[in-house]
Amino acid sequence: MSNTDTAVSEQTKREQLRQWIQGLHDEPVEVPDDIDLIDSALVTSLQFVSMVIEIERLHGQRLEPGAIRIDTMRSLKAIDAAVFQGA
User: Fold this and answer.
1) What is the mean pLDDT of the chain?
2) How confident is the model at residue 71 (pLDDT cuts 50, 70, 90)?
3) CB of 47 closer than 8 Å to CB of 24
4) d(Cα 31, Cα 4) in Å, to the nearest integer?
5) In whole angstroms, what is the distance from residue 37 CA to residue 79 CA?
6) Is the pLDDT confidence value at 3 over 50?
């Protein structure tokens, strides 16, 4: 897989996660790459576990316990760097 294919694939994972988060809400919401998903209430504490499961599904494997830290899961940008780019 070329670097271009990898970049597109990782972008697709981020976009799929963005769409999943948007699907949590009855009204349309914007989910910028750098917004804090927790502080903005885009993802509640109860939805956080479901989000980790969705990230694992998109990533194609279970996350190592050390990878699941609140600071690496706070924004799409952080998730992309910690999980999708590390794939």
Assistant:
1) 87
2) confident
3) yes
4) 24
5) 11
6) no
In one-letter notation, the amino acid at residue 17 is L
Encoding tokens for residue 5?
A: 């294919």
Token pair in block for residue 71: 């600071």
Q: Give yes or no for residue 29 having a pLDDT over 80.
A: yes
Could you tell me if 65 and 58 are in contact, meaning their C-beta atoms sit under 8 angstroms apart?
Answer: no
The model's confidence at residue 86, banded by pLDDT at 50, 70 and 90, is low
How many other CB atoms sit within 10 Å of the CB of residue 53? Answer: 12
Number of Cβ within 10 Å of residue 57's Cβ equals 14
Distance CA 45, CA 43 (A): 7
Looking from the CA of 22 toward its CB, the CA atoms found within 13 Å total: 12
